Amino acid sequence: MQRILVSACLLGEQVRYDGSHKRSRHPILQQWVAENRVISICPELSGGMPVPRLPAEIASGEGGEKVLQRQTSVVDSSGADVSHTFIVGAQNALRIARLHEIHIAVLKEGSPSCGSHQVYDGSFKGHLVAGQGVTATLLRISGIFVFSEMEFNDAHNMLLHLEADGIASPIFHKP
């Protein structure tokens, strides 16, 4: 049975920077939970950040790839560079995905860790720009299919495809 990596906040865990959650009640997620397919992850907590914590954004909205390449930083609202914890959290998420042979992740859109299509622009003014968070980027470049919470149907179709083929994703590689 294929397992799916899911952002902990989407499962109702109070792990967001302000101690809240973003629980999704999507029927597909509920089905996956009932089938015991879901592996929960909060990369920011896994990287060592507390709850609550200051909000963080990728400087200049550059995206997770630039953070992983150390060409830009994740900074919190006080201006402190918290890139290291975001990178460690992304590495931990990848390690968990590999441990469970996960090929699909559904992550929280907009997050500097988990955003799969959009992240905040680094101004702390609520402006979203096209881009990926640090964890979403690392998972994608490692061959994992990454979806946002608005793409449960697409993620489920990918799951059905992988299980119908009875094979692992052809682009998933273990080092």
Automatic annotation (TrEMBL):
<protein>
    <submittedName>
        <fullName>DUF523 domain-containing protein</fullName>
    </submittedName>
</protein>
<dbReference type="InterPro" id="IPR007553">
    <property type="entry name" value="2-thiour_desulf"/>
</dbReference>
<dbReference type="Pfam" id="PF04463">
    <property type="entry name" value="2-thiour_desulf"/>
</dbReference>
